[in-house]
Specification:
Blueprint lengths: L1 H28 L11 E3 L6 E3 L17 H11 L7 H10 L1 H9 L9 H16 L9 H17 L85 H23 L1 H20 L10 H25 L4 H8 L2 H8 L3 H34 L1
Antiparallel strand pairs: 1-2
Length: 382
């Protein structure tokens, strides 16, 4: 009897949950409803005009002006920063709950109901920097930590064994015949001075011609590497198969990638917009004839991508403020698929395929541009 009672109580709860979910889905698809006009007569407190409706036709003052409340004072404070008009909170709410449908409503002319996309982007970028600077529950300054990591990486690269100088020669920074990490002889070359053990000016006979060569037998207990055929002329060469110029180019590319990843971690809002703008051209090839918006133009797609970046920034600010990492960062990467699905009317599977194809096209384009730049640079240098 008790089990039957519990089952009978669970069934109405499931029905209510399904009804609420159905109502929520209907609300997401329904455009924003503007408040209806009021029929009662009003007299404007500013210009004294008698009118019917929500706003004075002469000066534009609202008919709901009355005594000040905490809500009105808060909105006036936000209006100083540009947040008290055009439904900033409505825009944030809709970007969290119905991003693609909201973007479609904005593109189809409902612009007074929502906050402008580019203005919202810069405001969210400012909030993102503020949260990354330590305004979070853990008090963690991500920007400072990233800056310290960059400085440490630069210091490591400068003091690494066998660093390459700007002119392509091998830079040797260790003195007294110590071995470098690859086993080659390292000699300090600061200001052209000789090592300490040759301070008296006497040079061994094997160094009389000024060339640095590896001795045939160890001297003074130091381990020396035997001379190779490639070092017969006395030059120190890198043990790798790459030339010094190639190693310099490789280090510059790796440094640029490291700086790009650090920038993405420090400024996720700006980086997400940068990636979406790069992807806009290939994405437009697949979404310009989408079922829900068959006449989508490229400029409208750019506005939609800015709103998509704003949605990603809101979630990123929330995650950074609460210090939610790992799984939530993966969710943040997948979030742009939601507005693209709702805006276009495509199924998620097709949206994922089109986005992946856009990434492949962008990657091939960037690779081709890099190859062409490298080719022309080599041609001009030679």
């Amino acid at each position: 009897m008790g089990k039957l009672t519990s089952l009978s109580s669970i069934a109405p709860k499931n029905i209510r949950l399904k009804a609420r979910w159905r109502a929520f889905r209907l609300w997401r698809r329904r455009p924003h409803m503007v408040a209806p006009l009021k029929n009662e007569a009003h007299t404007c407190s500013t210009c004294g005009t008698s009118f019917r409706g929500n706003y004075c036709p002469r000066c534009g003052q609202s008919s709901r002006i009355g005594r000040y409340s905490l809500k009105q004072a808060f909105l006036l404070f936000l209006d100083v920063w540009g947040l008290g008009n055009r439904g900033m909170f409505r825009t944030m709410r809709d970007l969290l709950l119905r991003p693609g449908y909201m973007i479609r409503d904005y593109l189809q002319g409902m612009q007074m109901a929502y906050f402008p996309p580019f203005k919202m982007f810069f405001l969210l970028a400012t909030f993102s920097i503020l949260v990354s600077s330590g305004f979070n529950i853990a008090g963690k300054n991500t920007l400072k930590e990233n800056r310290v990591d960059i400085e440490m990486d630069e210091a490591d690269s400068k003091h690494a064994d066998g660093d390459l100088t700007a002119d392509g020669d091998l830079a040797v920074e260790h003195a007294d015949g110590d071995l470098t990490a690859d086993g080659d002889l390292a000699v300090e070359q600061a200001d052209g001075d000789l090592p300490a053990k040759y301070a008296d000016g006497d040079l061994p006979a094997k160094h009389a011609d000024g060339d640095l060569q590896s001795p045939s037998s160890p001297a003074d207990g130091d381990l020396q590497s035997p001379p190779s055929s490639s070092q017969a002329d006395g030059d120190l060469q890198s043990p790798s198969s790459l030339s010094p110029q190639d190693l310099i180019a490789k280090k510059r590319v790796l440094g640029a990638l490291d700086a790009l990843m650090t920038f993405a971690d420090s400024y996720p809002a700006i980086f997400s917009l940068f990636i979406l703008v790069l992807l806009s051209a290939p994405i437009y090839l697949f979404f310009r004839r989408c079922p829900a918006y068959p006449d989508l133009s490229y400029s409208e797609l750019l506005v939609a991508l800015v709103y998509t970046a704003n949605m990603a920034s809101i979630f990123s600010i929330i995650f950074d403020f609460l210090q939610l990492k790992g799984f939530f960062e993966m969710i943040g990467i997948l979030l742009p698929l939601v507005p693209l699905h709702q805006l276009s009317g495509y199924r998620y599977r097709k949206v994922i395929v089109y986005v992946l194809l856009s990434i492949v096209i962008l990657g091939l384009s960037i690779t081709l541009v890099i190859i062409l730049l490298a080719f022309f640079t080599y041609q001009f240098s030679s």
